[in-house]
From TrEMBL:
This is Uncharacterized protein. InterPro entries: Ig_E-set, IRK_C, K_chnl_inward-rec_Kir, K_chnl_inward-rec_Kir_cyto, Kir_TM. It comes from Chrysodeixis includens (Soybean looper). Its main location: membrane. Residues 56-198 form the Potassium channel inwardly rectifying transmembrane domain. One of its GO terms (cellular component) is plasma membrane. The chain crosses the membrane at residues 88-110, 169-193. It is a multi-pass membrane protein. Belongs to the inward rectifier-type potassium channel (TC 1.A.2.1) family. The keyword Transcription regulation does not apply. The lineage of its organism: Eukaryota, Metazoa, Ecdysozoa, Arthropoda, Hexapoda.
């Protein structure tokens, strides 16, 4: 349904055309250059765009803080897993370098105190003396650094080796070996967790960028679309929606919306699926018209949960729709077609977010229901 600005003001003021004409989409003259959709309409007022609790990529727009003098140490492992790959790799490299350099300093102190760096005690002069060093074939800092790497990684080339001369060197070797094993296990665990976490799989599950409202079987319905871009299946899937009204007490204004699926309750994900919320008497949108939606400060959070068939891991995807992202009087374009050359169905995900406008009553579902009820009563009265 399309209208110009003056006609929209009339609608907001309650001076709309006859409801029956509105239902048929003929009560208001259209203008091809303007749309009812809020994202295509230039705003006259300078009202700030409403904040959102959940971004389109699923991240929460929340900041947790605790007013306390005692600071809680963060979960280091979880921080590494949640960090981007480049930062995880950089931190792993820095961890190795710090350990190697730290133990190189410890080895340097042990050998310096033992006197192994005296000119007459270096490896090329040992053959002429009876001096026994703590570690064989050590010439300076570079060779000590390589020796520290060999102990940490258990390489052991055979040229540099510890002797029985220094008990402190033996203790240091044991400590570095233990720390090396723990560090490698820690890093391998982080890399494995990052590779197998369902977050990467969640990026292939899409919600439509816009939600729509149109008429189905005489009822206004809120609809959004979601799909799976991979061939691997998601089993035991379910989808939920929650309405948030933006206010100073946001957490006290959460309402769960009843959803039905176009295909079945058990999502097979063979094709993109429509989630439909029927705007009836139990819906918080029951008394909201198109003009009310334009002025509403609300957000609809959608959540999909399922299990990855190949790994058995749970996956969750979140998104949200603000009032600006709900298109009244639109319908999603069909994106599935049968291709003879492919000998099968083809899903064109380039059309995943595309919609076209359809004639839809601009009044609220409550007013539409009252109209149908009065119409039936009037017809029954005439029949009698």
């Amino acid at each position: 349904m399309k209208m110009n600005l003056s006609e929209k003001e009339k609608l907001i003021a309650g001076q709309s055309s006859n409801l029956e004409d509105v239902e048929k989409g003929t009560g208001i003259k259209t203008n091809k250059n303007q749309k009812l959709c809020r994202h295509n309409q230039k705003r006259i007022s300078g009202r700030r765009k409403p904040n959102r609790a959940v971004f389109k990529n699923g991240y929460f727009n929340l900041e947790r803080w605790k007013k306390s003098k005692y600071r809680v140490f963060p979960d280091i492992v979880q921080a590494f897993i949640d960090a981007q790959w480049r930062w995880t790799i950089i931190h792993c490299i820095l961890t190795y370098l710090i350990i190697w350099l730290s133990f190189t300093g410890v080895w340097w102190a042990i050998l310096e105190l033992h006197g192994d760096f005296e000119p007459e005690h270096l490896p090329h002069a040992i053959n002429s003396t009876e001096w026994t060093p703590c570690v064989k074939e050590i010439y300076g800092f570079t060779s000590l650094f390589l020796f520290s790497i060999e102990i940490h990684t258990t390489i052991g080339y055979g040229t540099r080796s510890i002797t029985l001369e220094c008990p402190s060197a033996m203790v240091t070797m044991c400590i570095e070996s233990i720390i090396g094993t723990i560090t490698q296990s820690f890093i391998v665990g982080i890399v494995f967790a990052k590779l197998t976490r369902p977050k990467s799989r969640a990026q292939t599950l899409l919600f439509s960028k816009k939600a729509i409202i149109n008429q189905r079987d005489g009822n206004l319905c809120l609809i959004f679309r979601f799909g799976n871009t991979r061939k691997s299946r998601i089993i035991d899937g379910s989808v939920h929606a929650y309405l948030l009204r933006h206010s100073s007490e946001l957490l006290e204004n959460q309402i769960k919306l009843d959803l039905t699926l176009d295909s079945s309750e058990n999502i097979s994900f063979l094709f993109p699926v429509f989630a439909v919320h029927k705007i009836d008497k139990s819906s918080p949108l029951y008394s909201m018209s198109a003009s009310d939606l334009l002025k509403a400060e609300m957000e609809i959070i959608v959540v999909f949960e399922g299990t990855i068939e190949s790994t058995g891991q749970p996956v969750q995807v979140k998104s949200s729709y603000t009032s600006q992202e709900i298109l009244w009087g639109h319908r999603f374009i069909n994106m599935v077609e049968y291709r003879d050359d492919k000998r099968g169905f083809v899903i064109d995900y380039s059309k995943f977010d595309e919609t076209n406008s359809v004639n839809t009553p601009l009044c609220s579902a409550q007013r539409l229901f009252n109209y149908y009820e009065n119409k039936i009563k009037y017809q029954n009265a005439i029949a009698c």
